[in-house]
């Protein structure tokens, strides 16, 4: 069994549809929980005006009855509350030509999908491209990922995230459970209060200069048994699948597993996590591998670090070409975010959860949650190896 999801929708369109398939019956899914993660995804000092104007209005279309999955495909609708204003520009059956022209984007923004989207799909201006390239779609992904996260929680697996750098101001990763918890609730995704003020100053400084920022964040998954994923084929390797999922978050340019790039400079004797006997089994004293060896979970914490590039829409625009006149111009200035790293972290948590839930479902199968949970527990037992 595998899980899959598809979405349809545009950034300023009517909203997003998300259809999820392959979930077992009997999983308790609370819409409030989905709304909580959607609210987290909107967070962040440095997000633009739109976050204040709009709400994520979520409804379930199918697959849930009285709070439990039935085994049927799950459908969710996320309405865009600004749709009526945009209808003349984006109506599926007849737009107002004047309004569509006025909202055309002919000066593509370097760093966004505008130019290549036009070339690829044959559009004369970038409205169609940016509507689907926009990270607004990550709200729909967050819905799917949160259902996966709820499934993982039912198996005793936890997913956490924390921001570790904004605009070059790096901080140390969370060290305690309280710091992870603080990061979860903080609008900056920040594990420690004292680290927030320098980040806010950095965002203010960028905004005043018409600039934007990127940053770094961590995603952690704990409570995993050894043996999810496989080395049997390249596309079953879980490190590749997780990195691919996180790399798909708009703006992410780097993903590191465990000590990642730092391992390259070490000798083997310093780089690997030695295995020691422990009462009833074995243990590790380090986790440089980030919980993944041979394309499989090894039972340690899975730790992934992502780097996000600065937002491409700048108040002080970059040089580009006009798609109609081919003259050198400045890129289109749209309202936008100065920094979206804390939001991207929530999306990455959701996609990491999705990928891990797929691996769990593939490994343990089952039409009912109790079957999946039972087999997952067997895997855990096996992994204990009398630990
Ligand atoms: C939550 C979130 C919000 C974003 N907000 C904006 C924005 O307001 N303006 C913008 O130009 N890019 C924004 N981006 C980044 C673009 O979506 C991204 O840079 C673009 O899709 C190209 O990324 P890629 O080259 O990694 O695919 C945002 C990204 C995320 C994850
Ligand atoms: C709407 C969201 O993010 C949007 C992602 C985005 C982009 O270009 O990726 C551009 C901005 O939209 P607009 O140009 O309409 O202001 C963000 O607000 C969201 O996260 O819900």
Automatic annotation (TrEMBL):
Entry function: This reaction introduces a second double bond into the aromatic ring system.
Entry GO CC: cytosol
EC number(s) per entry: 4.2.3.5
Binding of NADP(+), residues: 41, 47
Keywords: Amino-acid biosynthesis, Aromatic amino acid biosynthesis, FAD, Flavoprotein, FMN, Lyase, NADP
Cofactor note: Reduced FMN (FMNH(2)).
UniProt record, GO biological process: amino acid biosynthetic process; aromatic amino acid family biosynthetic process; chorismate biosynthetic process
Pfam families, per the entry: Chorismate_synt
HAMAP family: Chorismate_synth
Molecular function GO labels: chorismate synthase activity; FMN binding
Cofactor: FMNH2
Annotated pathway: Metabolic intermediate biosynthesis; chorismate biosynthesis; chorismate from D-erythrose 4-phosphate and phosphoenolpyruvate: step 7/7
Gene for this chain: aroC
Annotated binding of FMN, by residue: 132-134, 294, 309-313, 335
Family indicated by similarity: Belongs to the chorismate synthase family.
Reaction(s) catalysed (UniProt annotation): 5-O-(1-carboxyvinyl)-3-phosphoshikimate = chorismate + phosphate
Lineage: Bacteria, Thermotogati, Synergistota, Synergistia, Synergistales
Protein name (record): Chorismate synthase
SUBUNIT field: Homotetramer.
Biological source species: Aminomonas paucivorans DSM 12260
């Amino acid at each position: 069994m595998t899980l899959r999801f598809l979405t349809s929708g545009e950034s300023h369109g009517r909203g997003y549809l998300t259809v999820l398939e392959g979930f077992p019956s009997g999983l308790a899914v609370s819409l409030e929980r989905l709304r909580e993660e959607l609210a987290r995804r909107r967070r962040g000092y440095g997000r633009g005006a739109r976050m204040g104007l709009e709400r994520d209005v979520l409804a379930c279309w199918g697959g849930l009855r009285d709070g439990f999955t039935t085994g049927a495909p799950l459908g969710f609708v996320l309405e865009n509350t600004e749709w009526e204003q945009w209808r003349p520009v984006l109506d599926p059956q007849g737009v107002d030509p004047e309004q569509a022209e006025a909202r055309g984007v002919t000066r593509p923004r370097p760093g966004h999908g505008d130019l290549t989207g036009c070339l690829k799909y044959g559009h004369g201006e970038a409205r169609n491209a940016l509507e689907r390239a926009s990270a607004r779609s990550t709200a729909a992904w967050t819905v799917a990922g949160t259902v996966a996260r709820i499934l993982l929680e039912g198996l005793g697996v936890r997913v956490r995230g924390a921001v570790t750098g904004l605009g070059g101001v790096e901080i140390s990763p969370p060290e305690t459970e309280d710091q992870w918890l603080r990061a979860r609730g903080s609008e900056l995704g920040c594990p420690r209060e004292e680290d927030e003020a320098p980040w806010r100053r950095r965002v203010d400084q960028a905004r005043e200069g018409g600039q934007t920022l990127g940053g770094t964040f961590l995603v952690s998954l704990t409570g995993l048994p050894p043996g999810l994923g496989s080395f049997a084929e390249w596309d079953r390797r879980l490190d590749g699948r997780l990195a691919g999922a996180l790399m798909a978050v708009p703006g992410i340019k780097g993903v590191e597993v465990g000590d990642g790039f730092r391992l390259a400079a070490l000798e083997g004797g310093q780089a690997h996590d030695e295995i020691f006997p422990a009462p009833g089994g074995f243990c590790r004293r380090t986790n440089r591998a980030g919980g993944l060896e041979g394309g499989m979970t090894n039972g340690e914490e899975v730790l992934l670090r992502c780097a996000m590039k600065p937002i491409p829409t700048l108040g002080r625009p970059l040089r580009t070409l006009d798609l109609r006149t081919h003259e050198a111009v400045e890129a289109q200035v749209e309202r936008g975010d100065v920094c979206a790293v804390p939001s991207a972290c929530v999306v990455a948590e959701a996609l990491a959860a999705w990928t891990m839930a797929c691996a769990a479902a593939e490994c343990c199968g089952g039409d009912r949650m109790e079957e999946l949970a039972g087999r997952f527990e067997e895997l855990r037992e096996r992994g204990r190896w009398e630990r």
